[in-house]
Amino acid sequence: MQKVSVLLFLTWVCFLFYAGIALFTTGFLLTRLELTNQSSCQEPPGPGSLPQGSHGKSGACWMPSQFSRVVLVLIDALRFDFAQPQHSHVPGEPPVSLPFLGKLGSLQRILESQPHHARLYRSLVDPPTTTMQRLKALTTGSLPTFIDAGSNFASHAIVEDNLIKQLTSAGKRIVFMGDDTWKELFPGAFSQAFFFSSFNVRDLHTVDNGILEHLYPTMDNGEWDVLIAHFLGVDHCGHKHGPHHPEMAKKLSQMDQVIQGLVDRLENDTLLVVAGDHGMTMNGDHGGDSELEVSAALFLYSPTAFPGAPPEEPEVIPQVSLVPTLALLLGLPIPFGNIGEVMAGLFSGGSDSEPYSSALAQASALHINAQQVSRFLHTYSAATQDLQVKELRRLQNLFSKASAGYQQALQNPQGTEETLRTVVAELQQFLRGARAICIESWARFSLVRMAGGAALLAAACFLCLFASQWAVSPGFFFRPLLLIPVAWGLTWAILYAGLSATTGSKLDSVILGAVAATGSLLPFLWKIWAGWGSRRPLATLLPIPGPVLLFLLIRLATFFSDSFVVAEARSTPFLLGSLILFLVAQLHWEGQLLPPKLLTVSRLSSSAPTCPPRHSGAYALRLGIGLLLCTRLAGLFHRCPEETPACHSSPWLSPLASMVGGQAKNLWYGTCVGSLVALLGAVRLWLHHYSNLKSPEPPVLFVRWGLPLMVLGTAAYWALASGADEAPPRLQALVAGASVVLPRAVAGLAASGLILLLWRPVTVLVKAGAGASRTRTILTPFSGPPMSQADLDYVVPQIYRHMQEEFQGRLERIKSQGPVTVAAYQLGSVYSATMVTALILLAFPLLLLHVERISLVFLLLFLQSFLLLHLLAAGIPVTIPGPFTVPWQAVSAWALLATQTFYSTGHQPVFPAIHWHAAFVGFPEGHGSSTWVPAVLVGANTFASHLLFAVGCPLLLLWPFLCESQGRRKRRQLPGGEAETRVRPEEEEEEEPLMEMRLRDAPHHFNAALLQLGLKYLFVLGVQILACALAASILRRHLMVWKVFAPKFIFEAIGFIVSSVGLLLGIALVMRVDGALSSWFRKLVLPQQR
Amino acid sequence: MKDTDIKRLLYTNLLCIFSIFLSIFIPPFFLDNFSVLETHLIWLCTCSTFVTAVNLLLYLVVKPNVSSKRSSLSHKVTRVLKCWIYFLMSCFFLHVIFVLYGAPLIELVLETFLFAVILSTFTTVPCLCLLGPNLKAWLRVFSRNGVTSIWENSLQITTISSFVGAWLGAFPIPLDWERPWQVWPISCTLGATFGYVAGLVISPLWIYWNRKQLTYKTN
Ligand SMILES: [Zn+2]
Ligand SMILES: [Zn+2]
């Protein structure tokens, strides 16, 4: 039963991590559903007549247009106070002189000299205040979040209805110049465009000078209806110098000249809009939600006067208000998903400036706006349950009331201005309420949830650290470890559910999980707290040895720097190589590499470990160098992150089909197939070395015949895929059919192999005839059937020994070859043989999802892990009666290797780098409506290395026992080996390696070691995800948060989930072998008794 | 061990540090535009030469390991030749290690190799001077309880700190500060130099503080 509780305990720890990740994610990653509906001219947003004149004029849609052309000047990061007019200062107060104040003098002049022609607003921006999100908001009128669900991760193109789309469908010519982000967002939307790279934030002038070169000529030639210029200099100056720098004054003065120049050239039918997309902090950064970041300037100027009196102070408006305002002023439909509120003050009833008609125009603009927002809310809440139902219903009522009032006012032309005013106020109230509920669900970081999630993650890591210590301590019991926390967790969860049921609020599953996790953590924290003060030296509190702790800390620190996250593909191999060389150096330092005769005996004082070296000195060095070489070679398959333009991605990451030149293609194809064969050959050789290929059990037969078949299938599929275009036309159908069937066949073969392996994991050759008669003589000292586990423990080694003798005797009878017998028995490697077979069966379908040449990386992966396991085994002493432990450096190196392989299989933790083609392996025609199959395929491709290494994690525990066979042979001459277990002191001289059977000798220790291994691996992965979460939350104002930290967190989180599931599977597999072995022994013993 | 020994060690170490300063301040008298960062390769060569020269000088003057047996001229010549071969071997070995660590294979070969040379100068040359071309002695010194004198102890500390310095020097390379010293291999060579200097300073002090615990078994 202990096995089950080990698995359950690990599952519970994983649940703690998942709860933390989920809580953090819901606080940090704001999500929203993207609707693809479009507004159209012909289809009014709601019932009722459109305002008069809408259909009369040409180019007018929902409302008559007031301007036919617009010039939109976006000055990136134009904070409100940059544009704020500087009133002559009050006497007595010292004059404020800052580099960014009062530099936009032309705005001030216009506002003073032509108050009816210009408006300045303080526009409030919704976080995240990053340029791309702001551009989306400024064109769609919505609140873009980091994950707009339904958006295509591979490109940034906006799929929602937006101003640019409406402009193009109305036949307007749009000319764009400036930031090349627009190119990604609106591919092919501009009639003319001048893009400049926005990448280098230290370059203040390239973009601006580029725009200025084209701006006035374009303006003068008149071949445009909409002119957009996006200047980046102010923003880049902020990032480079901060706003308090003389350079900022220069930059703003330059912008001032631009505005003046534009104003001078403006014609009567043209509107000029000068807007900042967001503000900047005191340091010049943006991305977060501080007051300086969210206040941007918005300036409108028109050669024809705006209606109404100019306000005394600049009005405060939401930034998205610009979208419906521009749409209606230009006579366009408002974009479908807009939630902005039209700036009513800009609408007049036409030529006559009678108060009533302009009030009517304002009311109708607001009414159309409200109809559109109401339609959007209706559609959105039908598609998803994000928005609060109660609040939605209240808003609906408000809208119907206001709408009725508006219709009434229309019916009654003699109505006063007063009734219209109340209608306007009600409509505005509705629009503000609608915005508020959207903001509530889309645009707020929840600091409480973020902090809670991080705290849960930290507590779970803490728990792993302590529990991994307890697991190997004497007097450790599995059952209380599990029962108490689960009981606590359930209690708390029920309490919370009851509480929310009584208060009538909606049950949030994320909060429920977090409450349960916290509740179940409490007894542990209490236990640690209780044991804190008493007799615990620091060494037990921090069980990780110093150097490994240093490596871990360095690795965690790198998550907090965007440069290092971007460069992780290079820094991980560096750290891995350092850890490997450190291990080699440490082995040498401890004197475990060199035979003691080299180090003069007198040098070895009594404190030195007396354990003699198990290997020759060059052995570990060779392993280390080999590992470094493999790591370096794997690094050749490197994909560049987009942030480093100087870096060139490896050409080997493209599929062979894209290659031109038959000779090279054939050569590469041969190499890839060769690496497959080598992989297969290596695994078979390894199994053969430990004599696991002898028995007639089905899994062994599968390894002998099924694996080559899989290689054949893979090779054939690659041949088809790389040469599909060259096939003659009459074979096309056959090729198409084969490219569907072959990958599925390989995956099916792998699955059936895994099922066979699970069904009969013990692949031991039993010789029935002569063996049975001899066994009885050996077993005479033991009488009676085995009643308990202890009896079985006593019997099993005897059987094992007997079988060895028998085997040895048989071999000697055939040929008198002594030393062969040492390795010639498969029971000693029964666990690892199953693990390796399972891994290779997993690797083949995963390999199929990658491009052909990644097969070389998979070969390297197996080689690397083989070398690493040998190197680690050289450093891990096998403590014979137990407890068995896997040292921290082994687990850390394993996790580093997994990360390194993630990068060397051509991945990067950013969404554009995902290998989407994996979704079409075996499904060349696509998937129809199913979404989970492609998701699983792409996920398996992306997290292949996480899965393989997590499943293979138990090898870390098994390998030192496996390596014993080599070590022991050399040690045979040395006196005084370890004391053999209690039952058979007389057999000591036999000295045959028991290898993995030692684990069965001590089942309690075996289970504890598996538990400890799992906890340690979870800890190493858990601190990584914790560091990512902390980095993302601490640096949520950072320029790179949505580009680097947030994607890194998402990849790390999914990687953690995949790894933890893989770890559970791996440990479960070992336990399955163990169980099968027990029943196998029982079957063997029981016939002896009769 | 006596305090005079530690003092002698301190002086020799200070002389080594002085040689590094000389390599920075003497070349400007002969070369225009010399600076450690801009003409980095030249500085690497001069630094390596100066440190080697001072080490050899100290070896001839101080003779820390007095070998009693008189040796013939031919023996001496083979010994010197062997030292040369060992030095070159260590340069190539380090170069290979750097490439395995991720240094570019084809571009910047000269830079990488000179980095290997300077690191060999800081590590292999003192070993050769003190221990001679005797790999077993080297391996002994760099294992637990393997040192037999304060000279060897100092050698151990300076060598390890040079390697650690070079290792730490690699960390600023990916950062986006765009400083001239972040270019490969400048930060690493500077790190190695700082590590070497730190080791030279620390080792006499460390030996002085721990002089009670340090008991060397002489053979
Ligand atoms: Zn911006
Ligand atoms: Zn910016």
Shape of chain A: elongated
Biggest chain contact: A-B, 34 and 22 residues
- Extract low-pLDDT stretches of chain A: 597-613, 768-789, 814-825, 967-992
User: Which ions and ligands are bound to the chains?
Assistant: zinc ion
Distance between the termini of chain B: 15 Å
Calculate the mean pLDDT score of chain A and round it: 81
Uncertain runs of chain B = none
Q: Compute the number of helices of chain A.
A: 37
Oligomer: heterodimer
Give the fraction of residues assigned to helices of chain A.
Answer: 55-70%
Number of contiguous helices of chain B: 8
Secondary-structure-based class of chain A equals mainly alpha
Mean of residue pLDDT of chain B? 87
What amount of the residues of chain B lies in strands? under 5%
Q: Per the principal axes of the C-alpha atoms, what is the gross shape of chain B?
A: globular
User: Total number of β-strand segments of chain B?
Assistant: 0
How is the biggest beta sheet of chain A arranged?
8 strands, mixed
Question: What is the count of β-strands of chain A?
Answer: 10
Biggest β-sheet strands, sense, barrel of chain B: none
Taking all Cα atoms into account, the compactness measure Rg of chain B is: 18 Å
Describe the structure.
- With 1090 residues, chain A is mostly helical.
- Helices cover 59% and strands 5% of the residues of chain A.
- Chain A has an 8-stranded mixed sheet with strand order 6-5-7-2-8-9-3-10, sandwiched between helices.
- In chain A, helix 6 links the parallel strand 5 and strand 6 (192-196).
- In chain A, helix 1 runs parallel beside helix 16, helix 23 (662-689) packs antiparallel against helix 24 (698-722) and helix 33 (944-951) packs parallel to helix 37.
- The longest helix of chain A is centred in the C-terminal third of the chain and has 49 residues, at 1041-1089.
- The relative contact order of chain A is 0.10.
- Residues 597-613, 768-789, 814-825 and 967-992 of chain A have low confidence and may be disordered.
- Chain B is mostly helical and 219 residues long.
- Chain B has one domain (3-62, 75-209).
- Chain B is built from 8 helices and no strands.
- Chain B has helices spanning 3-25, 27-30, 40-62, 73-101, 109-131, 135-141, 150-169, 186-209.
- The longest helix of chain B has 29 residues, at 73-101.
- Chain B is globular and about 50 Å long.
- Chain B starts with a helix and ends in a 10-residue tail after the last helix.
- The model of chain B has no long low-confidence stretch (mean pLDDT 87).
- The complex binds zinc ion (2 copies).
- Chain B: It is found in: Endoplasmic reticulum membrane.
- Chain B: It is a multi-pass membrane protein.
- Chain B: Pfam families: PIG-F.
- Chain B: Pathway: Glycolipid biosynthesis; glycosylphosphatidylinositol-anchor biosynthesis.
- Chain B: Its main location: endoplasmic reticulum.
- Chain A: Keywords: Endoplasmic reticulum, Glycoprotein, GPI-anchor biosynthesis, Membrane, Transferase, Transmembrane, Transmembrane helix.
